[in-house]
Design a protein that fits this description.
Elements: E1 2-5, H1 25-31, E2 41-52, E3 55-62, E4 76-81, E5 85-90, E6 101-106, H2 114-120, E7 127-130, E8 146-151, H3 155-168, E9 172-178, H4 187-196, E10 201-205, H5 206-209, H6 215-220, E11 227-232, H7 234-243, E12 252-256, E13 268-272, E14 277-281, H8 287-293, E15 311-316, E16 319-320, H9 328-333, E17 336-338, E18 343-344, E19 348-351
Parallel strand pairs: 1-12, 8-9, 8-11, 9-10, 11-12, 13-19
Antiparallel strand pairs: 2-3, 2-7, 3-6, 4-5, 4-7, 13-14, 15-17, 15-19, 16-18
Length: 353
C-alpha cells in the first residue's frame, strides 16, 4: 500500500518508486530529486474561482510568461506565503496543461495561516514563490481500471488523475462524498463527465442521503485487478484500508489529510555529510527542530510527516520512519527520511545535507 497526504487544506501529501531492489544510492539520487533540492519558481495569480462554499480554485502562471515545469497527476506544489509560511496543495489540472498550475484550497476553520490567507486575502495579480511540483501520490496510468474514493477537499489530486485518464482514454470510476452539495467542489465538471459516459461518477451527499457513503460496500464491488485510490478524512481512510486487505499492496494508494504527531522515541546523532557537521537529537525531538535550533536552513511545510517537503536522502544508518508519505518499499530501502518526524534505529544517521 502506498500512502501520502491530501493537499487542499494547507497541511499536507505515495506510491512505490520505479526502482529495483539493488538500486544504488547514487543512481537513486539522480532519478529522485528531493523537494529541498529544487529551486523555487516565481508565479503570478492569473485567476481565482469559487468552486464550493469554502473552496477557492487558484490559477498560477509563470511570472515571466514561460511554460512551467511539467508534472504528473497527483502532484502538489508548496506555496511560499507571507509570514514565512509554506503550504502544500495538490494540482487539480491535468499534466497536459503546461501554462498554469491550478490548486483548490479549502478554508480550514483551524487554519494556522495558510488556507486562511489563500481563501481570504490572495488576489489576482499577486506574485508568489512556489516549489516545483513533487508527487507522493502518483497515478498508475496503464491500469486496467482505476477506482477513486474522495472525501471533501480530497477530490483535488483525484481530479487531476481523472483528467489524465480521460486524456489517455483509460477506464475509471469515482465515488465522491461530501457533507452536502454546496461543500463539494467541481460538481458541474464531474456531472458533465458522467453525462458523457454514464456509470462512472457516483456523488454522495450526507445531508441528502441521511448517512455517510457506504464505502465498504462500494469498494467490495471493485475488481481485484483495479488500482484503487483514496484521499479524504481520517475516518474515510480507515474504512478504505479495512476494505482493501485482500488486494495486492501495489494496487492500493492512499493520501492523508492529517499528519502525525509522532517524534523520535530514542536519542541519536545526525551527521550532515555536505556540511561536515554532527548534532545530537534527544528523544522526543525531531531532526528538523534540532537543525533549525542550530540555524541550519531546511525545507519544510507541514512539519507533520505528510507533505514530503523535508524528504532527505540517507547515506548511512537506519531510519525509524514515522511519516505518512513513504511507501513500504521506500521505507525498506532506507534511502529517504522525513526529518520533521522520523528518527533512527541506529545510533547515528548520515544525511545528504
Amino acid at each position: 500500500m502506498s500512502e501520502a497526504t491530501c493537499m487542499g487544506t494547507g497541511t499536507q501529501v505515495s506510491a512505490p518508486l520505479a526502482q529495483t531492489e539493488d538500486t544504488g544510492t547514487a543512481a537513486f539520487a539522480a532519478t529522485h530529486p528531493t523537494p529541498a533540492e529544487a529551486r523555487p519558481l516565481a508565479v503570478r495569480v492569473a485567476a481565482i474561482h469559487q468552486v464550493a462554499e469554502t473552496i477557492r480554485a487558484v490559477e498560477l502562471v509563470a511570472a515571466d510568461g514561460k511554460a512551467l515545469p511539467g508534472f504528473t497527476a497527483g502532484a502538489h506544489i508548496n506555496l511560499k506565503l507571507p509570514g514565512d509560511l509554506s503550504r502544500s496543495y495538490s494540482l487539480t489540472n491535468g499534466p497536459q496543461t503546461r501554462d498554469r498550475y491550478t490548486i483548490a484550497v479549502n478554508r480550514d476553520l483551524a487554519s494556522r495561516g495558510g488556507s486562511a490567507y489563500v481563501v481570504d486575502k490572495l488576489a489576482v495579480g499577486e506574485e508568489l514563490l512556489v516549489d516545483p511540483p513533487h508527487n507522493t501520490f502518483p497515478l498508475v496510468e496503464d491500469a486496467e481500471l482505476s477506482a477513486f474514493f474522495a472525501g471533501g477537499i480530497g477530490i483535488t489530486p483525484i481530479l487531476a488523475m481523472i483528467r489524465q485518464l480521460e486524456a489517455l482514454g483509460r477506464p475509471w470510476k469515482l465515488f465522491y462524498a461530501a457533507r452536502n452539495r454546496t461543500s463539494a467542489a467541481f460538481v458541474d465538471e464531474l456531472e458533465a463527465l458522467e453525462a458523457i459516459t454514464p456509470g462512472r461518477v457516483h456523488l454522495h451527499f450526507d445531508a441528502e442521503a441521511g448517512k455517510v457513503m457506504p464505502l465498504l460496500k462500494l469498494a467490495a464491488g471493485i475488481p481485484k485487478i483495479a488500482h484503487i485510490y483514496c484521499c479524504g478524512p481520517s475516518k474515510m481512510i480507515e474504512v478504505f484500508k479495512a476494505s482493501a486487505g485482500w488486494r495486492p499492496d501495489e494496487n492500493v494508494h492512499v493520501e492523508h489529510f492529517a499528519g502525525t504527531n509522532a517524534r523520535p522515541t530514542t536519542a541519536f546523532d545526525v551527521e550532515l555529510k555536505r556540511r561536515g557537521l554532527t548534532f545530537h537529537v534527544p528523544a522526543g525531538e525531531s531532526i528538523m527542530q534540532v537543525l533549525m535550533d542550530n540555524h541550519i536552513p531546511v525545507a519544510h511545510s507541514c512539519r507533520e510527516g505528510v507533505c514530503g517537503t523535508c524528504e532527505t536522502r540517507v547515506l548511512a544508518g537506519v531510519p525509524d520512519h514515522k511519516d505518512n508519505v513513504l511507501s513500504s518499499r521506500e521505507r525498506a530501502s532506507n534511502e529517504l527520511i522525513m526529518i520533521c518526524c522520523s528518527g533512527a534505529k541506529t545510533d547515528k544517521l548520515v544525511l545528504d545535507l
